[in-house]
C-alpha cells in the first residue's frame, strides 16, 4: 500500500495511530445509536421530460429519497397560517410514486374545497420539480383530507 503524501492523508494516518483504547467499541456504539435514530427512506424513481425513467451517465436509474419529497411538501403546506400538514403519505408501486395522501389541519373559517383545489397544483409542481413528470401522477392522484379545524394558525398549535 502506497503512502499518501497529501496533508489530509498524513492527518488521517496520524489520527488512526492515535486512537485511544476502546475507541473501536465507542465508535461502534455511536454508529448503532445513529442507525437506531435514522429511519430508512424509500427511493422514488425519477423521470425525464419524455416520461421515461431518468438515468445517470453510467446508465443507472436515478432516485430521490421519499424524505426529500415529504420535506418539500411539508414546507409548502406550512407556508400559510390557514392550514398545516398533519400527515403526508406517499404511495409507491415498485419505486414509482403513484399517489399522495395528505391530511391537513385548517383554520376555522377557511373554505376547505377551494383550499384543496388551490393546493393540488402546487403539490404536483413540487413533486414534478423533484421527480420529473411521473407517468400516471396527476391532480386526481393527490388526495387531501381535513382531519381537524382550529382557531388561529394551525402551524402554531
CATH class of the largest domain: Alpha Beta
Overall geometry comes to: extended
CATH fold annotation of the largest domain: GMP Synthetase, Chain A, domain 3
Mean pLDDT: 87
**Structural class, from secondary structure content?**
alpha+beta
How far the N terminus sits from the C terminus, by CA atoms, comes to 59 Å
pLDDT < 50 stretches? none
Number of domains: 2
Order of helices and strands: HHEEHEEHE
Q: How many DSSP H or I helices?
A: 4
By CATH, the superfamily of the largest domain comes out as: ANL, C-terminal domain
Report on the architecture of this protein:
By secondary structure, the protein is of the alpha+beta class. The protein folds into two domains: 7-37; 43-156, ANL, C-terminal domain (GMP Synthetase, Chain A, domain 3). The protein contains four helices and five strands; from the N terminus they run H-H-E-E-H-E-E-H-E. The chain has helices spanning 7-17, 23-37, 66-77, 112-131, and strands spanning 43-45, 63-65, 83-93, 96-107, 142-150. A three-stranded mixed sheet has the order 3-4-5, with helices on one face. A two-stranded antiparallel sheet has the order 1-2. The protein is extended, with a radius of gyration of 23 Å.
